[in-house]
């Protein structure tokens, strides 16, 4: 069984697949026993064929395909459910996350107390457009005010978390944006780790500020309700 499963959701990212897989191999091969699980959210380009061809160069690669387009959160969750590793690293499929940061997150995990179950990437020097940076800054401030999750950047795609803890969280569409708050709701601790961020070199973004805002308002209310209704207690067996 691998020590680590790297889960990468993709939708129409055919040109970003080979270079990102090469970077994952450069960062992890020979250093840790790992697998890479790509989850194709029913791409309309030839991402599926590109992934099939990459298996010859990357024996660690496993490929899942959605039968209907279901979004990033569902892709991440299906990848985690299929994963064999006890710990999961996630990357966005657009290549803006740097796989070289995965060993840094693993080192943070090894030095942390066992109650820390999520190590969240923190893009301290974002390479996005000014409008996306402004939109994210506003969304992060609003989310932090309402949820009090003490996390500066929940939208960063690179994360490291325990598989069992993740699968114990409530599932809903867009949940990947609220993992710190959901982990804390479950009684676990979260640590933000500064990571590298790169400009997108191929393809186009699948999100807009307006689209995120429309679903974000409902999501924030829902997560706040989940936190308010949460009940936790220790247990012992006699």
From TrEMBL:
* EC id: 2.4.1.83
What are the record keywords, sorted?
Cell membrane, Glycosyltransferase, Lipopolysaccharide biosynthesis, Membrane, Transferase, Transmembrane, Transmembrane helix
Q: Which GO terms describe its biological process?
A: lipopolysaccharide biosynthetic process
The reply on keyword Glycosyltransferase is yes
Give a yes or no for keyword Transport in this entry: no
Residue ranges spanning the membrane: these are: none
Ranges for domain Glycosyltransferase 2-like come to: 5-166
Stored CDD domains: DPM_DPG-synthase_like
GO terms for cellular component: plasma membrane
Coiled-coil segments: none
Under the heading Pfam families, the entry gives: Glycos_transf_2
Q: Name one GO molecular function term.
A: undecaprenyl-phosphate 4-deoxy-4-formamido-L-arabinose transferase activity
Database matches in InterPro entries: Glyco_trans_2-like, Glycosyltransferase_2, Nucleotide-diphossugar_trans
Quote the PANTHER family the UniProt record gives. UNDECAPRENYL-PHOSPHATE 4-DEOXY-4-FORMAMIDO-L-ARABINOSE TRANSFERASE, UNDECAPRENYL-PHOSPHATE 4-DEOXY-4-FORMAMIDO-L-ARABINOSE TRANSFERASE-RELATED
Stated name of the protein: Dolichol-phosphate mannosyltransferase
The organism encoding this protein is Oleiagrimonas soli
Record lineage: Bacteria, Pseudomonadati, Pseudomonadota, Gammaproteobacteria, Lysobacterales
């Amino acid at each position: 069984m691998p020590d680590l499963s790297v889960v990468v959701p993709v939708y129409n990212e055919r040109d970003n697949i080979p270079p990102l897989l090469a970077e994952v191999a450069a960062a992890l091969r020979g250093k840790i026993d790992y697998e890479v699980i790509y989850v194709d959210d029913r791409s309309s380009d030839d991402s599926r064929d590109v992934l099939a061809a990459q298996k010859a160069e990357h024996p660690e690669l496993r490929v899942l395909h959605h039968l209907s387009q279901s979004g990033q959160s569902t892709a991440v969750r299906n990848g985690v459910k299929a994963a064999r590793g006890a710990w999961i690293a996630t990357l966005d499929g657009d290549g803006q996350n740097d796989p070289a940061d995965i060993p840094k997150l693993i080192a943070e995990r090894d030095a942390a107390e066992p109650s820390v179950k999520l190590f969240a990437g923190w893009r301290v020097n974002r390479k996005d457009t000014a409008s996306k940076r402004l939109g994210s800054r506003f969304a992060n401030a609003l989310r932090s005010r309402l949820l009090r999750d003490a996390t500066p950047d929940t939208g960063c795609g690179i994360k490291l978390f325990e598989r069992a803890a993740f699968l114990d969280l409530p599932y809903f569409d867009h949940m990947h944006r609220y993992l710190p708050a959901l982990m804390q709701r479950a009684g676990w601790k979260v640590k933000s780790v500064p990571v590298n961020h790169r400009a997108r070199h191929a393809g186009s973004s699948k999100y807009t500020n307006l689209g995120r805002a429309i679903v974000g308002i409902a999501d924030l209310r829902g997560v706040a309700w989940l936190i308010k209704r949460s009940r936790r207690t220790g247990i012992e067996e006699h």
